[in-house]
Write a structure and sequence with these properties.
Blueprint lengths: L1 H34 L3 H5 L1 H8 L9 H16 L4 H10 L3 H10 L8 H8 L6 H9 L7 H6 L2 E3 L5 E3 L7 H32 L2 H12 L6 H12 L4 H8 L13 H25 L3 H9 L4 H29 L3 H6 L7 H10 L4 H34 L2
Antiparallel strand pairs: 1-2
Helix pairs in contact: 1-19, 3-4, 4-6, 5-6, 10-11, 10-14, 10-16, 12-14, 14-16, 15-16, 16-19, 18-19
Length: 393
Amino acid sequence: MRGQNALAAVLVAPLLLLLAAAFLVPLGTTLLTAVADRELADTLPRTHHALAAWDGEALPGEEAFAAVADELGVALEERRLGPLAQRMNFAAGGQRALLLRTARAADGLTAPYAVSLPALDPRWGERDTWLRLRDATGPVTPLYLLRALDLDQAPGGAVTRMGEEDRLFLTLFLRTLGVAVIVTLLATLLAAPVAFLLASLPPRWAGLGLLAVLVPFWSSILVRTTAWFVLLQREGPVNATLVALGLTEAPVQLIGTRIAVIVAMLHVLLPFAILPAYAAMKGIDRALIRAAASLGGSPVQVALRVYLPLAFPGIAAGGFIVFLLAVGFYITPALLGGPRDQLVASFIALFINREVNWGMAAALSVLLMGFAACAIAAARLLLPAALKGRLSP
């Protein structure tokens, strides 16, 4: 028995290592990045120590002023000031300019620094400036997660709601979840009859049908999205067909609309809904269907009371897969959607590639995973109960 357990552990170990390397480590790194706040401690250690002991009531003592004046100059000379300046400027606009100006003038400052620093820039004489620095003493911060929820952290740590003109991300999350739900519902509704047809066909024809389902996997998402860009443009075949059928008098704008995004995403994700549903339906024992019919059940009753409950796990699994993939879509909305059709993934890419703000990108990723997990948990609780209530005698 011990030998069998040891062999099983050896066989499972590579899978566990792959799971840790591909999922647990990236997830843990993302969670830590979303709350990490080490820039001040790494760049200005003396200032960090002085502010950690400050009560925040009045301005800090001369020790903090002297530490800031000395360490900012050294950090600029050693080219270490960039991350801290970016972190502070994200918390409040204008902080980057304040730090750079002070760092450049550090050599000309003289004691007492509690006088020379405010003389250089009056903001050093304001308590809010020092409170913002103290809020960055870390090692963790809620700032990025709060901003991703359209909330702000005032000097001193108080949480406030951002101005209406600055609120963006809650609407973005709702848009992402809404598009994902629509694509999931459409994919599920289309996949169920296709899977039923494939499961009912003879093996030869079912194999050809599965081949047709799998053919899209032979090309990348970028290629399939680009194909839809060609199809949906004003001079493309879709507009030509609409005009020829008399449905529209002139070509309509399809590129840059929500419809284009949903159609293209549905095309890409539909196979992920078909395959689990087909696997579940193919495994249903046909004797159960014949037994239900022999007991007097009508075709509709047999379908709703026997076939659908047995196929439901596969249909639901396909829906969950489509939903998880849809909430993280980037290429299709970026190419086919307008400014109001971009999803969370587009802003994650923006903060990584253009803003170089890893904390905000990680915060958006964490919240997106959290919202998706909540939606899936709710579906797992509600759908079986609703199906049971609908199909019960």
